[in-house]
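User: Modeling request: complex.
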Amino acid sequence: MQRFARLYEALDATTSTNQKVAAMQAYFAEAPPADAAWAVFFLTGARLKRLIAPRLLAVWGMEATGTPDWMFGESWSAAGDLAEIVALLVDTQRAGAPATSSGLSLSELIETRLLPLREADEERKREAVLSLWRSMSLREIFLVNKLLTGELRVGVSRTLAVRALAQHAALDPGVVAHRLMGSWQPTPQGFAQLVAGDVHDADLSRPYPFFLASPLEQPPAALGDRAAWQAEWKWDGIRAQLVRRGGSAWLWSRGEELITDRFPDLRAASESLPDGTVLDGEVLAYAGGAPLPFSVLQRRIGRQKLTAGILADAPAAFISYDVLEMDGRDLRASPLVERRALLSQLVAGRSDRLVLSEEVAGESWEALASLRSEARQRGVEGLMLKRRDSPYRSGRPRGDWWKWKIDPYSIDAVLVYAQPGNGRRANVLTDMTFAVWDGGELLPVAKAYSGLTDEELDRLDRWIRQHTLARFGPVRQVEPLHVFELHFEGIAESTRHKSGVAVRFPRIARWRTDKKPRDADTLQSLRALLRPAQAVHG
Amino acid sequence: MPLAVVTHAHADHAVPGSARYLCAAPSVSLLRHRVGPDAAIEGVPYGEPRSLGEARVSFHPAGHVLGSAQVRVERGGEVWLVTGDYKREPDPTCAPFEPVRCDVLVTEASYALPIFRWDDPREVLRDVHRWWQGNSRRASVLFCYVLGKAQRILAGLSELTDRPVYVHGALEPITGIYREAGVRMLPTLPVAETAKGRSFAGELVLAPITARGSPWMRRFGDHESAFASGSMRIRGQRRRRSFDRGFALSDHADWPGILRTIEQSSARRVLATHGYREALVHWLRDRGTDADLVGLAHPTDPEGD
Ligand SMILES: [Zn+2]
Ligand SMILES: [Zn+2]
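Assistant: Request completed. Predicted assembly structure:
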C-alpha cells in the first residue's frame, strides 16, 4: 500500500511522461505480482465499484473527527476533494500520534478488506472504514477513500501505462495492449499473462486496440491529393468491434466494454459471418436505410430491460468500415485499400443489420466540402478521411485518420451558477451553469466545464467570489452579467431538463466580453436548432 | 504614525514612513532592511517591559521568523496580547514561541481549518533533502518566501549536508542578516555570479515565487520545481500550480497550534485576523468563547508574510 501510494504521488507530482513511465516501470519491477496486477487495473483506467456513497464518507469523517457540517463546508472550499478532506481531517485530529503505515499490501487491502464489504451492511462498513483510518498514514487514507467511493483515478493515460508495462516485460506495446483487452483479470496469473514472453496467446473473445482518428485542424487540401484518401461519413453512434471466433460472437465498445448482450438484434448478423473475423465499425439505431439520432440509441442504452417495444423503436445495425481479421489472419498491416476490398465482399448480402459504411464520392476537396455541409441533415457528425495506403494502427497516432467534423452548434448564454471543480482546479470555480432567456427569465440550459484558459478561469473565479448572490452548498449563484459562447455537438428534446432540451458535450468557446446579457440567445432560438437534427427522421 | 510597535519585519506587518519604531531586539536589522537605513528603530529584549503612556508594553517570542514577537500590552489591569504571525513548531532560526496569559488575545488565523496540521518540520526537511539528492541530472528549484522560510530551509538542511546552495539575489541581504545574527546555515552562492552556461544539474536553487516564469529561470533549463508553503498540504494546490513537488512547511500556526495557543492564553475574548478567521470565530463562538473578527482579510496564500 505504501509502495502504491508512493507511485500514486510520483505520478501525481510530475508532468513529464518519461518520468511517469520510469516510476511505473520501477513499481512493476519491485511489486509482488498480486499488487502489480491491481496497479495495472487502476493505471489502465479501470475502477472498483463504489462501496460507499460519498455522502456517507463525509458523514463518517465528520463524526469520527468531531467536525461540524459548516466546518466541513469551509474545508471543502479550501481543498475541494472529498476523499482528501476526510483524510486530512482524520490526520489532523490525531495530532501527536500519526499512524505511520498500515503494513497492508495493495492486494490485501482490496481483496481482504474492501471487496468483502460489498455484502456488508452499513454499520459493518462503517466499523471497517473507521478501523482502516485509524491504522493508516495520511496518503493511505486518501487512497482508501478514493477506492471506497470508486473514484480512484491515476494521473496517467492508458497508453502510457501500457508503454511502461511493455518496457518492463520487454514486449511490444501492441502485444500488451491486446492482452489487456477483453476480460483481463487483476490476479497474479493475470499479471503473469501480461508480461509473459510467449506472444502466441489468443483469447478468443479479444478485440484489437482501436485506431482513433484525430481532429482535422487544417484545410483538407493540406492532406494533398484527394485520390489518396478514402472519405466516409462520420457516424454518430457507438464505436465497436465485432469479433467472430470459435463459433461465438462478441461485440466490444471502444471503452472495452462487452456490449454483446445489449444488442441481441445484432446476433444474427454476427453469426452470419465466418469464423476468424473481426470488424471495426459503429453501432447505430438504424431504420429505413438511414441512421436515427443518437438520442434514440441513448434511450435504449439507458434501459435495464430490452423489451420488444424498445427493440422495435430503436433497431440497431452495425455499420462496418474496416476488417482487422479474416480467416483468423491479422490484416492490420495491409493497406486500407486492400482491407476495404475484402470488407465489401465479406459484408455484402449477409444481413440487413450489417451495413457497409459507403465511401463518400466527392472527387475534389471542394466537392467533398459541399457534401460535408449536408452532414447535419443526414444525421452524421461530418466526414472521416483515411489514407488509402495506411495500415490499421493502434491508439491515436496522427497522420492517417482524420475526423473532419461539421462546425458545432453555437449559442450565447449567460453565466448563472458556478461551483468548484475537482482535481487540478479543486479550489477554482470551474464548473459553470449557463442560461438563455425565456420570456423575462434566465433559464439554465447547459453545464460546461472546459474551454477557458487558466488565466481566464482565475479572473472569473475572483469575479464570481465578489459577485455571489447566494450559496447553496458549494454552488454559488452569481450576478447574471457575463456572456459566453458555448459550443455543443448535439441537441435533443428532454423531459428531464426544465428547459425541455438537452445539449451534448457543451463547452465554453469564448468569453464574449463584447456582449451584454440582453444579447444572449433565447430558448426559442435554441429550440430552433432541434429542427435540422430531427427533420430527416421525421 | 509617530510610533509603530512592530511584531516582525514582513511587509504586511511593517511599513516605512513612521517616525519611530519599537520591536524585539533581534528584529532590528531585518526591520531596518524593510523600512530604510535612517529609520529610528529601538529594539527591546524579549520579556523586558517598556512604558508607553499609561501602557506597559513587552515583546515575547512568536517563533515565526528571526526576531518575531507577540506584543503584550497591559493597561489599567487588563492585558491584551497580539500574537502577530506565529508557529508552534521548532525552528532553528528563531526563539521558540512562548505562551503568554492575557485577557484579550488577538491571534492570526492563516491556517485556521482542521485540515491543516504540520508534520514535524525536521521530517519535511529530510524530504526536501531526499528530493534534492534524487535530482542528480537536473536542477532542483525550490520556491519559498525570502524572509524566514528560505533561511529556515538553509538552517534545517545544514543538519543533513554541507553542500552549498544557489540563491536568487532577493535572498542575499536577508540571509546575510541571519548569518550576522549567528544562525547556522548552509553556505550560499549567488546565482547571478555564476559563469554563463554553467550547468546547475544536481544543485539546489532557492528563489522567490515571483521569479517563477521569469527570464531569470532560463539558465536552469529543464529543472524540477517545488514550493515550500503550508498551502502545499492540499493536493489541489500542488497540482493547480503545477509544481513537481510541494513541501508543507509553514511559518504559521496549524489548527492544533492555534487551539492550543488560545487555550494556554486563558483569554476571555479572542479576536482573529488573517486567513480563515471567520471559521475560527465561528468555531470559538460555538464553544461559548467570546470571539470576533479584527483587521483585514488575508490574501489566499498566507506564506507571503
Ligand atoms: Zn502576516
Ligand atoms: Zn509574517
